[in-house]
Design goal:
Layout: H1 11-21, E1 33-42, E2 57-69, E3 72-92, E4 98-118, E5 126-145, E6 162-176, E7 181-193, E8 200-214
Antiparallel strand pairs: 1-2, 1-8, 2-3, 3-4, 3-8, 4-5, 5-6, 6-7, 7-8
Length: 215
């Protein structure tokens, strides 16, 4: 099955568009800012090509609710994710052919605009759904070819860092345990292109389990 390339959408345009959807002010009792600490588990290419292979990173981030009314809220979320050295499968940009396997450390920065739907018509407690769009920047550094993992072109700047960026979307759910403490489970999808030479790609579906803290 061929993988489709995502169409670039600047995160600032997404934020402005969602801001335009908000027709009401924040309530006086709304929490405006918070933070999250997450365990991030990449699947697919970022995990050596297996659905689950034990590679886990640490995510640290902040979020800001900029519109909330009854069951509905919009928020901005930003995360930095840090992965230890692990196997990364590099494919052709259409996802049809694996080119080589790289061992590298990874650093990812994500920004997203997310819509939250609260089942209890309040964000003080209970379950809520998460849907979001955003943008992601990935840096792979200290890269080395895995023995038997193919041969990369000589123009790849190993062992220097190589970078890629991608649109992303997120889906998930969360729950408010207390007014200031909660948890979230998210699935995010990104596809980083042109890593080193052109015409390459790494698909990055990720499962994240986060603790959230709000002021």
């Amino acid at each position: 099955m061929r993988r489709t390339e995502l169409i670039p959408i600047p995160a600032t345009l997404l934020a402005l568009g969602c801001l335009g959807l908000g027709g009401g002010p924040l309530r006086a009792d709304d929490r405006l800012v918070g933070a999250q600490v997450a365990l991030d588990m990449p699947q697919s290419d970022m995990n050596g090509g297996k659905w689950y292979h034990g590679q886990t990173g640490l995510g640290l981030g902040v979020h800001w609710v900029f519109w909330h009314h009854d069951n509905h809220a919009f928020r901005l979320r930003g995360d930095g994710i840090f992965y230890p050295r692990g196997p990364i499968n590099v494919f052709t940009s259409d996802g049809a052919t694996q080119l080589w396997t790289l061992s590298a450390k990874t650093r990812i920065v994500e920004t997203a605009v997310e819509y939250n739907f609260y089942f209890n018509s309040t964000d003080q407690e209970g379950l809520y759904l998460i849907m979001g769009l955003g943008y992601s920047w990935a840096t792979f550094y200290g890269g080395q070819l895995v023995p038997g993992g193919g041969s990369a072109p000589s123009n790849i700047p190993w062992p220097n860092s190589t970078r890629g960026n991608s649109n992303l979307y997120s889906l998930g759910m969360g729950s408010r345990v207390t007014r200031n403490l909660g948890w979230e489970f998210r699935f995010t999808q990104a596809y980083y292109m042109n890593l080193g030479p052109g015409g390459t790609g790494v698909k990055d579906p990720t499962l994240s389990l986060a603790m959230t803290f709000d002021l």
